[in-house]
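User: Sequence recovery, please. Input:
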């Protein structure tokens, strides 16, 4: 139960940071133009092509220096490495679907930046938010190498408990762990989906009726 709690907490923190970085970066890469844009985007995608072990060892030295190793904070930060690139790509695609016309029209009608973001961008970004939500949680829960190296054995997540049993011949144990692993992201997805329904405009029944 402790490992499940630690896994859920870390996954939620990683998800929150992914949403923040993904939305801002996706908006910039989709709607803005600046020198070196393709280079910066390629650098942000680079973690997907680097071996996980190399990234973990390199970051471990830095985290030890700043006191982040052997702590859940360091584990949450290192989980950003395999998740941030996907979030940026998904939100970039979402902003490309929105385009600039709606945003420009709302600005011409006097809408402030926050109003435009909350009433126009967020509802239209809902498919990207759902994709990032589910993918980030699944990737974070499944990280064994990154958690083991950065956590140093002090941060015990569900993957740390699960993977040693992959060599066991007891099918009942493997089936139980597999069910738990499958249920956690599904339950979190349902809960967070419900939060989105009641927090985003035009999503809950009353908002749709008034619209």
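Assistant: Recovered sequence (211 residues):
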């Amino acid at each position: 139960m402790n490992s499940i709690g630690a896994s859920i907490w870390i996954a939620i923190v990683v998800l929150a940071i992914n949403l923040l970085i993904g939305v801002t970066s996706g908006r910039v890469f989709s709607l803005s133009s600046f020198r070196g844009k393709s280079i910066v985007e390629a650098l942000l995608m680079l973690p997907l092509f680097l071996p996980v072990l190399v990234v973990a060892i390199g970051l471990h030295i830095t985290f030890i220096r700043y006191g982040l190793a052997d702590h859940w904070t360091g584990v949450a930060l290192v989980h950003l490495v395999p998740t941030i690139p996907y979030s940026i790509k998904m939100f970039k695609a979402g902003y490309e679907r929105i385009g600039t016309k709606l945003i420009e029209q709302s600005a011409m009608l006097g809408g402030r930046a926050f109003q435009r973001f909350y009433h126009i961008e967020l509802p239209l970004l809902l498919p990207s938010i759902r994709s990032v939500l589910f993918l980030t949680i699944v990737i974070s829960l499944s990280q064994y190498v990154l958690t083991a190296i950065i956590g140093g054995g002090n941060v015990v997540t569900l993957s740390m408990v699960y993977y040693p049993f992959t060599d066991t011949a007891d099918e009942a144990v493997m089936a139980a762990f597999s069910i738990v692993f499958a249920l956690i992201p599904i339950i979190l997805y349902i809960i967070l989906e419900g939060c989105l329904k009641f927090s985003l405009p035009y999503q809950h029944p009353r908002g749709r009726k008034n619209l």
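The chain has one domain: 2-210.
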